[in-house]
Amino acid sequence: MTKNKYEQVVDLINTANGEDPNHENDDDKAWPKELLYSHRMSDMLERYTPQADDVMKLAIRAQHIQRWKSPRDAYPMNKQGYHQWRTALYQFHADQLAQLMQTAGYTENEIERAKQAVSKKALKKNKDTQLLEDVSALVFIEHYMLAFVEKHPEYDEQKWLSIILITWKKVSERGQKFALSGGIKLPESLLPLIEKAIG
Length: 199
Known about the structure:
By secondary structure, the chain is mainly alpha-helical. It is built from nine helices and two strands; from the N terminus they run αββαααααααα. It has helices spanning about 5-15, 35-50, 55-60, 80-105, 110-120, 125-150, 155-170, 175-185, 190-199; strands at about 25, 30. Strands 1-2 form a two-stranded antiparallel sheet.
């Protein structure tokens, strides 16, 4: 059976992310890291906004496409270098997705819309960008926040409260309500810290 253009791009994203040389375990299965991340993003979108259209489903699935090809240490290891890396990264992901969507026959308007979201343009103003930001923050809290905490034992409580609050403020009011009403699994050991941060 011939696949539609949406299915074609999903397959292309999976193939691209399946090349990730970095691996992560989930339920005793080793996954290419960004392939697992893309599945978690799609799963969260389905739980949070099941009515999202195909353009946003692709933008959210491709948010980290081939991230390993743009390593952090390719930029100065300071605050300015971090921001340069993030800006270049957003554009890299957006361009990668645009190429795949073009291959499958998406229109210029659809491709531009996906690129705007993936490159994090007009956060808080662009509903697509905000949806992507909500989903990525919810995925981070559910799947990655605990590992991030364990990776940085040098951070004190005040630093963690600040990090959690910054993440929380990026999420829309709807996303915050979703998280607090059981929409995601909050890391149990971090609950006191999370509750203190969002107060």
